[in-house]
Automatic annotation (TrEMBL):
Full protein name: Rhodanese-like domain-containing protein
Species assigned in the record: Thiothrix subterranea
Phylogenetic classification of the source organism: Bacteria, Pseudomonadati, Pseudomonadota, Gammaproteobacteria, Thiotrichales
Span of domain Rhodanese: 18-125
InterPro entries: Rhodanese-like_dom (IPR001763), Rhodanese-like_dom_sf (IPR036873), Thiosulfate_ST/Rhodanese-like (IPR052367)
Pfam families, sorted: Rhodanese (PF00581)
Residues in coiled coil: none
Entry superkingdom: Bacteria
Amino acid sequence: MPELHDLSPTAAYDLLQTTPHSILVDIRSAMEYLFVGHPVGSVHIAWIDEPDWDINPHFAREIEQLLTSRFQELPPKAAQVVLICRSGKRSREAASALLEAGFQHVMHIDEGFEGERDDQHHRGTLGGWRFYGLPWEQC
């Protein structure tokens, strides 16, 4: 089985800018994606979402369908898939599931979108996509 690769937010951004067959998938809940914000250009496919907060049983199939439509010239499981969540925990779990499902190039952003909490229990002050000033938007 291929190895899971951890990327810093800036390394992930650089990879996405320079690698033609790469895609950033935001796996947070729909509420997080819409209201907290998300990286510009990311595609949303939730790993865990409301109302039951269960793991999406169709996650790997939905990723494969996305890759098939986006990169028609490649076998779908050969594209570079970069996953992002809030702080890197869910994306690591989801990335492992994709590797087990046969995807060949799966990475996750180890600090996520918001990073870990600081001493005052605030996110976004210690790391994460937004912390580094990478492009993001909010609905």
